[in-house]
Structure formats: structure tokens, C-alpha cells
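Anyone opening a protein record will find just a pair of labelled lines. A complete record is shown below as an example:
=====
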Amino acid sequence: MAEEKLRKKIAIMEKQLRELQMEADSVKERLQKTENNRDEYKSKYLQFKGIFQRQTGTFYQYQALSEQSKDALSGVFRGESFEEFLACGVQPGNIDTLWEFSRSQALKGNLADIDILEQIIAYFVHLYNGTNKSPILAFQNVRPGDPFDIDLHIRTQTSKAAGTISKILITGLTNAFTGETIKKSVVEVE
């Protein structure tokens, strides 16, 4: 009789063990799905974070411009919000105005904001090109050490009239289809 009780108890315990094992398997399966979802969301989060950081980074760069530059560009960038900044900056006419302002600053020797302005131009050219089936604008392929060419470059007032390019202040723009120069690079010539 004691042996019979033990067998029944063992059978009950084995049944409970199987049920607990099934429950553990179910929990493991849910945990795996949850971890997969977490990984997927984390990947998407990092992707969106990267995009948003680039966009907001450009906006914060604009905010770091001197008050003089921001005042001069108030006709290009209307409003104060990030969304207004993007909407204004991606317009072709505003890219042109921004580039022309940068050119004039470089030629006047006002170089404090030039690096930021060039990065902002590059960002908006990239965004603008992204709104088309194929790129419309490209940047001139110009490097220090290249010979100065009046058809491709504008030299600063302190530069020599001829020679090699020592520094690129503002990279010029070309037609992405034809390669035709739209805006000449502003360079220093030694």
C-alpha cells in the first residue's frame, strides 16, 4: 500500500513536472519573441536616432552661427523651429542664396562661420537631391594642390593671381548630369 501511494505520488509529480516543463517552454518562447521584438525596435530606434541626430545637428550648427550671419540669412531661414529650418533650407533658391552668402563672406575674409556654412550647404544639397529621382546638384571635385583655374575657381583677394590651390573655403556646385559648373569654388591660391 505504501508502495502504491508512492507510485501515485510519483505519477502526480511527473505530471506536474511535464506541465511545468511545458509552461517553461512557453515562457522561453515568449521571451525569445520579446527579445526579437526588442532587437528589432532597438535597430529601428538607432536608425531613426542617427537620422534625427544628423538633422538636428545641422539645425544646432545653424544656431551656432554668429548673430551677423543669422541676421543676414533671416530671409532664407524664416521661423524658429526645426521643421521651418528644414522646409526653408531644402528649397533650391534658398540653397543658392545660402551658397552666395557663404561665397561673399569667404571673399570678404569673414571666415568665422565658413566651416558651418559649408556643412549646412552640403546637408541641404543632399536633402534636395534626395527629393529627386536622381541627383541634380553635385560638388566640384577640387583639392589643395590642384592648379587654379579661373573657369572653375574664384580666388580670395589675398591669393596670388595664378598658382596652386592651398585651401578650399567654399566648394563649388555643378550640375550632377552634365558636370557643368554652377558655382565656382572659393579658394586660396599660393
